[in-house]
Design a protein that fits this description.
The chain has one domain. Helices cover 41% and strands 26% of the residues. Strands 1-2-3-4-5 form a five-stranded antiparallel β-sheet. Strand 2 and strand 3 form a beta hairpin. Helix 1 crosses helix 5 and helix 3 packs across helix 5. It is globular. The two termini are 21 Å apart. The relative contact order is 0.23. The model has no long low-confidence stretch (mean pLDDT 95).
Length: 153
Amino acid sequence: MELNEKIKSALIKMDFVHKYEELSNKFNSDRTPEEELLEYVDRDEVLEIIEKLGYKASFNSKEKFFAIREEKIGNFSFGFHIILRYGAVDWGWVAREGNELLLGSPWSIYSRLLIDPDYRINYPLFGTYEDLDEIFEIGFAMYEEFKKAVISS
């Protein structure tokens, strides 16, 4: 698997790997040990956090993820999926240009495709809704930066 050139350029331009590493390092197992992880989340509480950040989301109960309503900007469309599992946040971005899918993978794949197949960045961990809110703020800021970088590339 390879990254589309526009996506690769956008991720490099926004310094994605460094920002994801910072997020992962800030919300790690030292901050929130395994026994303090918020393993089960209240769906409505999560939807409220997302809405407070200015996004509309739904929960896909079959696939168990939160989906941010896809946004169309010019010839591009963008989506954002969030999986909360055992106190960890797994993200995935979707990007299309016209009908062509440019990206539809989780964040963990991007660093491996940019650096090395064995390169791993740990998921951000949370033990409170306050931590989750802060993680979301950073993740959504990265999403906005990603969209701008894709459009301008």
